[in-house]
Amino acid sequence: MMYELLNFKVRGDHTGNLVALEQGTDFPFDIKRVYYIWGTDRDAIRGRHAHRNLEQVIVCTSGSCDFILDDGHERVTVHLDNPAVGLHIKSNIWREFTNFSPDCVVMVLASEHYDESDYIRDYEQFKTEIAK
Ligand code: TYD
Asked: Considering the entire predicted model, what is its pTM?
């Protein structure tokens, strides 16, 4: 399975909505790092890498964007536009994200600290590594 979509519990009423992500109960891994991305041009393409070990849950907390996921055999596009949904991606999946709405904010919850050696930034290298 290339990815799974997590439907978070929403605590909502007439004053608005709240999602709480708590380690051990609502979440598939221990969160070591959170980062977020905004101010992206619609046609910008971010990502263009895979991770050797990292797991991530990606939430589009505002607006929308498309995640293109590739396991070396097939490519799928996942449209994210709901802050109550998390895109869970495990290791060894090539990802690119694009088609950003002007108000898009992408929040990423990651299972490890930042480590450049965990990145595979070359697509041919990715294909070589997953074939092993
Ligand atoms: P990168 O992961 O390439 O961004 P994206 O996948 O969204 O296109 O990261 C962009 C830059 O930010 C790069 O120089 C590495 C740095 N960076 C950190 O220092 N810490 C982090 O946690 C992340 C995700 C990136």
From this structure: 0.96
